Amino acid sequence: MAIKKSELYSSLWKSCDELRGGMDASQYKDYVLVLLFVKYVSDKASSQSNYLLDVPEGASFADMVALRGDKDIGEKINKIIHRLAEANDLTGVINVADFNDPEKLGRGKEMVDRLSNLIGIFNSPALDFRGNRAEGDDLLGDAYEYLMRHFATESGKSKGQFYTPAEVSRILAKVVGMGSARSAGQTVYDPTCGSGSLLLKAHDEALSTTGHDLAIYGQEMDVATAALARMNMILHDAPTAEITPGGYSTLANPQFRNRDESLKTFDFVVANPPFSNKAWRNGFDPAHDEFGRFSAPYVLPPAKNGDFAFLLHIVASLKSTGKGAVILPHGVLFRGNAEAIIRREIIRRGYVKGIIGLPANLFYGTGIPACIVVLDKEEAATRTGIFMIDASKSFRKDGPKNRLREQDIHRIVDVFTRQVEADKYSRLVPVAEVEANGYNLNLARYVDSSVATDLQNIDGHLHGGIPQLDVDGLGDYWQVFPGLLDKLFSPARRGFSEMVVPAPSVADTITEHPEVRDFVGASRALFENWRTGAQDRLRAFDAADSPKALVELLSESILDMFRRAPLIDTYRIYQRFMDYWSASMQDDAYLISGGSWADAATPRLITDKQKNAGDFGLGKNRFQSDLLPRDVMVGRFFEAEATSIASLEAELATAEQELIDLGDEYGADGAVLDGVVDDRGKVTKKAVSARLKELDADPDGADAEDRRVLQECTRLLENVSTLKAQLKRAREELDVALAARFRDLTVDEIKQIAIANKWMARLGRAVDEEVQRVAAQLTGRIEELASRYETPLPALVERVDEKAGMVASHLARMGVR
Predict the structure, then answer these.
(1) Do residues 533 and 648 both lie within one domain?
(2) Domain limits at 31?
């Protein structure tokens, strides 16, 4: 059964709801991930004859399902997991959570119900991994990342360090140069691997770009977190990865060594070590380090700060051609004493290829800003510069944390890999300049990312006119709209211009100018060019195709298409596409790849709880198509009927408002409608009829105006009733016609409607909003300047004096002196 990715996420997170209350996220993640693991390997073993893991009899997820309602369910689940662990050398990895713990899971029936419900959630169609779909497009891997992000968020500052945000991991995987892998015999290593997400991102980057399946090595001090990493590797189809718990930290007891006990070296190293670890010397004496990591030309890192200790371990763990990327706090770039000496020696040897400054508050264990230090031994001898990026201002808020957007990730990677220098963002800094600054790498010394101050011109405020400096500051616009400049401004006195058009006409002058219209038309033409190719690719997309390959192709092509557009931030266009992909297209693509276009479009019966504006009804049943929502189908086939319904809705709203107005006017105490209007402020037909009968019973005492108001109420009530009946009938007829149209759809029609009327229509609007944003920004700035210098100071003083005189005159007439 094809599923939406969002439904998979929802199912997994629903499983967490069963465990909240008895434990926090740092604990219940162990239960959820173990069940996910057992479900995954059971499905794979039942569908693949040569699956690497052994699921012995009595140790499968099906055996857990059979326990639902069993009074000893907790104890028996433990036995199933223990049996599976023993069969695959996973003891201490998957049997870390006790499913028979009454303190966490409740006692008696409470435990039985909780575990039964939990198993039921994992037994849903949304978690069926028997096909290759999950592996082939990493659907499960993405779901695992989703869970880990939420676990890290809920675990709090002290317990969220097991997870490196996926966005940061993606950047490291690309800037470290995994795409340069030359053979499957090469290796990737993480000395502080946590749950393994960073290692997997690096490994997958090499596999997807070069086809080489690199050997994975990781060490993690915390035994429970190392177990998470082992499960993570298996769930990501990397069961041969070597993950070792360290006892002490990697610094005290590195587990990966050569036969002669020397330190093993690797082709690639990625790491996110604990920031400023004060206990890094525990378990060994670094002054007598057997691997020589902290000896000349280096010195011992500070006893209470392990940042450079981890960096030196990584340097020592790289082959002579090795490349590394490590996340460290900003302090490593500029702190003095021993750290300054180590930094100097690493730079002198040419090991530092680049520095990428990241926003603050990205990581779950700390809120301090961090950076990525990119190392490269292969090109060290010829290195003459260090490429620096300050991306500290590129993020969006996501609850309590900051988060890198797709556009931020892409821009960082593009700029770094292409070594593009961009104002206030990136520079290739000569090593000689770094040396002149005492080997201080503080980014602010080399990349000024500060926002320029919008200066106020005193002369302009005193004598009027818009400073030419501000007009010239819009030079990027005037290069594209040279004629518009003359349309808006004319020279005034020296160094100043004046507005040619009145401020209220600025917006219309800009949007209606031929150069701006040509710009909008050219930008829309770029989208049309992209759409032509994209639609062909989308029509060819079908069952078993990769949604990830699809989004990669489409997003990169729209990014490349708009690189040639002036004034438009191409990364904002890219972000618009990625936002829509995440919101809608992604689910559609997974439905199609997991089944077919016809399956994805076929309306499904929904429950009342799921009822929303996107469904349609036949009798008591409600239906909804995931791929072709109601509004898209109605817009494509039933525009006239929709217009008629909208007209009836407007008439009904008007009639209901007239009733409300009548009630407000005549519903006061003692008025004719007193008592006719109910507690909700509505006039009721029954009460109106009763009041009219009272008047009919005493025709001589009846007031003509009262009768007229009541009769008007009756007329409006009947009108409302008639309109409601017409509206109900029109909606029912449209639903019947809609259902019939769904039945008659061909696959070609489904593709046409989904691609053109749904996806491309929405993307076209999004791109157009970005195009229109250019004119809106120019308009806003010019209106701001016009308003700022519209009235010179002497004129303001004159107005103040005039108003003061008027106030004094009024006070004098009032006898106030």
Answers:
(1) no
(2) 1-135
CATH of the domain at 23: 1.20.1260.30
**Inter-residue contact 357 to 392 (CB < 8 Å):** yes
Residue carrying the six token digits 């992604």:
586
Question: DSSP letters along 743-765, please?
Answer: HH--HHHHHHIIIIIIIIHHHHH
For residue range 219-269, what is the model confidence (pLDDT) as tens digits? 999 888 888 888 888 888 888 999 998 667 899 999 999 999 999 999 999
Residues constituting the chain: 817
Phi, psi of 277 (to 5 degrees): -60, 120
* Same domain assignment for residues 3 and 100: yes
Could you tell me the strand order of the sheet in which 385-390 lies?
242-245, 215-220, 187-190, 266-271, 318-329, 370-376, 352-357, 385-390, 426-430
CA-to-CA separations, 555 to 52, 177, 575, in angstroms, rounded: 35, 21, 9
Q: DSSP letters along 496-518, please?
A: EEEESS-GGGHHHHHHTSHHHHH
pLDDT band at residue 330 using 50, 70 and 90 as cut-offs: very high
Question: Of the candidates 43, 76, 80, 40, which has an alpha carbon nearest to the alpha carbon of residue 59?
Answer: 80
β strands within 512-560, DSSP E: none
Supply the DSSP symbol for 583: I
Asked if 359 and 404 count as a contact pair (C-beta separation under 8 A), the reply is yes
Token look-up 């096909």 returns: 131
Q: Is the pLDDT score of 105 beyond 90? A: no
Evaluate whether 197 touches 148 at the Cβ level (below 8 Å): yes
